[in-house]
From TrEMBL:
Lineage of source species: Bacteria, Bacillati, Actinomycetota, Actinomycetes, Micrococcales
DUF1468 domain location: 11-175
Name of protein: Tripartite tricarboxylate transporter TctB family protein
Gene source species: Arthrobacter pullicola
Transmembrane segments: 7-30, 36-55, 109-142, 148-170
Keyword terms: Membrane, Transmembrane, Transmembrane helix
Length: 181
């Protein structure tokens, strides 16, 4: 894959980030009273998109260069181990570093999509906080096969941060559902 082909998706993401930040600035990032305005979160997301696109582009270039360097040294017959370069045979089965095949990764992706859809459907019933908490724990435990206690702790911390950002700082009411939570 050429460098330009690898760069195009990152450029598109960066352009979307710039557009989001510019449009969000029109809504007001900081209000007249010094409080966070309605454009703050979209502007922050836009800036983060640009940042992540740049980081991904640089990282992709570095990783590709390293892989090309290793392949070149191996093709020339030099011992890559002498240069401190890792030598790994490509995995013909497409198994990732966690031992998952492409089929397993695809199933995990579809499971997450289904869980998100269920979360959206359950939010009016359970409320955002409860539905979001259940989603985080189910993805961590059922899909990623993580231990339940650390998953619960991450869920609680994530919910606290989400609540602080939206309810306390931005004063955006979250859906409470039939439970009123």
């Amino acid at each position: 894959m050429s460098a330009a082909t690898r760069l195009i998706p990152n450029l598109v993401i960066a352009a979307l980030g710039v557009a989001a930040a510019v449009i969000a600035a029109g809504y007001g990032v900081i209000g007249d009273d010094g409080r966070i305005g309605p454009g703050f979160l979209p502007a922050l997301c836009g800036v983060l998109l640009v940042l992540f696109a740049v980081v991904n582009s640089v990282s992709s270039h570095r990783n590709r260069t390293s892989a090309e360097d290793i392949a070149e040294r191996l093709a020339l017959g030099s011992d890559a181990g002498d240069h401190g370069l890792p030598v790994e045979e490509p995995d013909e089965d497409g198994v990732d570093i966690y031992g998952r095949s492409q089929r397993q990764r695809d199933r995990m992706l579809w499971a997450v999509v289904g869980i998100i859809l269920a979360t959206v459907l359950l939010t009016p019933v359970l409320g955002f906080i409860v539905a979001f908490a259940v989603m985080l724990v189910v993805i961590a435990v059922a899909v990623e096969r993580r231990k339940i206690l650390p998953s619960l702790m991450v869920s609680v911390i994530t919910l606290a941060v989400t609540y602080t950002i939206f309810v306390v700082l931005l004063q955006v009411p979250l859906p409470q559902g039939l439970l009123g939570i």
